[in-house]
Design brief:
This protein is of the alpha/beta class and about 200 residues long. The protein folds into two domains: about 1-30, no CATH class; about 30-200, Carbonic anhydrase (Beta-carbonic Anhydrase, Chain A), CATH 3.40.1050. Helices cover about 45% and strands about 15% of the residues. Strands 2-1-3-4-5-6 form a six-stranded mixed beta sheet. The longest helix is centred in the N-terminal third of the chain and has 28 residues, at about 1-30. The chain is globular, with a radius of gyration of 18 Å. The N and C termini lie far apart (about 35 Å).
């Protein structure tokens, strides 16, 4: 906790004075973020940092490998799906960005089933990436395959987003856009998926 408290003190000393009025306004009027970001839980790939976001600008859902699961109504607990529904239906975000990243441990586990095989809850979650791994099956070189699966997993999550009726309906009506990106941890570069070119293009 010592490092967290030290970080909080620095926040109060440096950032809080500049953002105080904004926080007060957010507390009074509530949040109205325009963007939902679905990102990986990886500590190196924080959307608020990457996009230099201010408080209240982003609604962020983070999980292992930035996975969007299929819409399932079975009475179980679906945290990611609930957050997506909350952002789209109640907050009425205008944009959804699925952001994968380089050196993703979740993608590595999807490629190599031995990684994290004894970690509770992980395997069934990572298995959701199986279609993305299969799309890269023709690439034998490990590094190339890893990058291909990282990008393919973003596209898979976009496809699954569009299988949620409340997302598809708003996209069709022009009320919502859905985008994909991949962040490079080592070089800090951001690639945005261009559906016209069917490729990830560096910003």
């Amino acid at each position: 906790m010592k490092s967290l408290i030290a970080g909080y003190r620095e926040f109060r000393e440096r950032r809080w004075p500049a953002e105080r009025e904004r926080y007060a306004d957010l507390a009074k009027t509530g949040q109205r973020p325009r963007t939902l970001i679905i990102a990986c839980s990886d500590s190196r790939s924080d959307p608020a940092t990457v996009f230099n976001a201010r408080p209240g600008e982003l609604f962020v859902v983070r999980n292992i490998a930035a996975i969007v699961p299929p819409p399932e109504i079975d009475g179980a607990h679906h945290g990611t799906s609930a957050a997506i529904a909350f952002a789209v239906m109640l907050l009425e975000v205008r944009n959804i960005l699925v952001m994968g990243h380089a050196q993703c441990g979740g993608v590595a586990a999807a490629i190599d089933g031995a990684i994290g095989s004894d970690v509770p809850f992980l395997r069934s979650w990572i298995d959701l990436l199986t279609p993305a791994v299969e799309r890269a099956s023709g690439h034998a070189h490990d590094a190339d395959r890893h990058e291909i699966v990282e990008r393919a997993s973003v596209l898979l999550s976009i496809e699954r987003l569009m299988s949620f009726s409340f997302v598809a309906d708003r996209v069709k009506d022009g009320q919502l856009t859905v985008n994909g990106a991949r962040f490079g941890i080592a070089d800090g570069k951001l690639e945005i998926y261009d559906p016209t070119a069917n490729a990830f293009v560096a910003v």
